Amino acid sequence: MPARMNRIGAALSTDSSVDAAVVDCAERAMEQLGGETPHVGLLFTTPHHASQSIASDVARRTGLGHLFGCSGESIVGADKEVEGTPGMVLWLAHLPDAVVSPFRLGVVRNDEGGVEVQGMPGIGQRTAEQFVADGAAMFIVGDPFSFPVDAWVRDMNEHFEGLPVLGGIASGGHAPGQSRLYYGDHVVDDGAVGVLLEGARIETIVSRGCRPIGKPMVITKAHENVIEEVAGRPPLAQLQSFFDEADEAEKALIQRAAQGGLQVGQVVDEHISSPSGGDYLVRNVMGADQETGSMLISDYARVGRTVCFHVRDAEAADEDLKEMLAEVSAEGAAGALMFSCNGRGSRLFDAPDHDVGCMRDRFGDLPLAGFFAAGEIGPVGSKNFLHGFTASIALFLE
Description:
Elements: E1 7-13, H1 18-32, E2 40-45, H2 54-62, E3 67-71, E4 74-76, E5 81-83, E6 88-94, E7 99-109, E8 115-118, H3 128-133, E9 137-142, H4 149-160, E10 165-169, E11 181-183, E12 186-188, E13 192-198, E14 202-207, E15 210-223, E16 226-230, H5 235-245, H6 248-258, E17 262-267, E18 280-288, E19 295-297, E20 306-312, H7 314-326, E21 333-341, H8 354-363, E22 368-373, E23 376-380, E24 383-387, E25 391-397
Parallel strand pairs: 2-3, 9-10, 21-22
Antiparallel strand pairs: 1-6, 2-6, 3-11, 4-5, 4-22, 7-8, 7-13, 9-13, 10-23, 11-12, 14-25, 15-16, 15-20, 16-19, 17-18, 17-20, 18-19, 21-25, 23-24
Helix pairs in contact: 1-2, 7-8
């Protein structure tokens, strides 16, 4: 049987009234479906619109049974990134050949004093190979204070390598209970929500917001998340050597990064002989010891791993996103979801609406929705990672 066509609609509202925004988004998104029934929907709102009835209102106006999403400090629509002002974006998808399995994940304490994630939609009955063969993809958004997203992603890699997972951590909340997660017609404030899609015809793109400086080196001494030596010397000493040898433009970047934007990238696949920017999993430098020259990073540092210093750079982020999008055919695109870092947008680029502008330049008036996350999930190779400063994109094909 030939594949049936996917159809997607999306609408963004900046109305300060949550009721008016729901009506506006629901009507315009449904209209774009041309009378087809939506099988799944995503809703992203700024904290201004995080009302307890919003999910049920959207579900009632669209007939959706499978809705999920979250609040974010900023949201993304087809032609605008809404930062610091009220906004809501609704994305509806008619996916006639897809199997849609929504889920809500909770966290419980086990007998050993650790935590366990519960609520996966029968995923344990399938193998990674089956998911890959079915073209499956998973989407998830989680609460930053209650959901162990990094550990969950590592567990998914261990048991379901090859199944792409995209999403992000809700942003804009500053304490437990302030984030909003949307699930069906419910609004919750903990755990995670998402959907497993099988047979939906999706391509994934993960674009970085950093660029490497210096040269790749191997960690030669480390403890937990402290890098004590790279290539036999303290990392601060290596960074100073790179600074001394850099041109004026690179020196300015390193100086800026040293004030709060320095990153360390760890090579994802050690079989790559000459890693480039896209081969690194970038992590924040959380601090440094001036006496020992060691660095504290936001991940485990393992002896033998290849690393390279990185800096946040708008020009490199712009080039990388455009290059990644250019590698994907614009023909047959039905819609897209974008999970961008809350360190992008106006915090990184001089001009507004940068990432959605790149999407429009490549795909035209494509139904698009997303939010600025406090950590983005996306695949690199056959594994998924919790990223920083990236734009993690799912492109849905017709």
